[in-house]
Specification:
The protein has 87 residues and is mostly helical. The chain is built from 3 helices and 2 strands.
Length: 87
């Protein structure tokens, strides 16, 4: 299993495809290997909806993480960081 979030190498955000694959793997483990999780199935539709929402949340976490790095911060986050450091 891949580690997401803050790692020794920096911030690792899962892709939408990784999130959906994780949902599918967990559903198959709990329900059965023959569960239809294709994009056209009901479970597949839910996986896409929840995966997209979770992906947006991960993007926000990544932006917050980079907001404390003056070399990576942009816009409002960079302005707020400059206020904290007095630069």
């Amino acid at each position: 299993m891949t580690t997401y979030g803050v790692t020794p190498e920096g911030f690792r955000r899962p892709t939408l495809e990784e999130l959906i694959r994780q949902f599918e793997d967990e559903e198959r483990a709990e329900i059965g290997d023959d569960l239809d999780v294709s994009a056209e199935s009901i479970p597949g539709q839910f996986n896409g909806i929840y995966g997209r929402s979770l992906s947006i949340a991960w993007e926000a976490l990544e932006a917050a993480y980079h907001g404390f790095d003056p070399d990576a911060a942009e816009g409002r986050l960079l302005e707020m960081l400059a206020k904290l450091t007095g630069t």
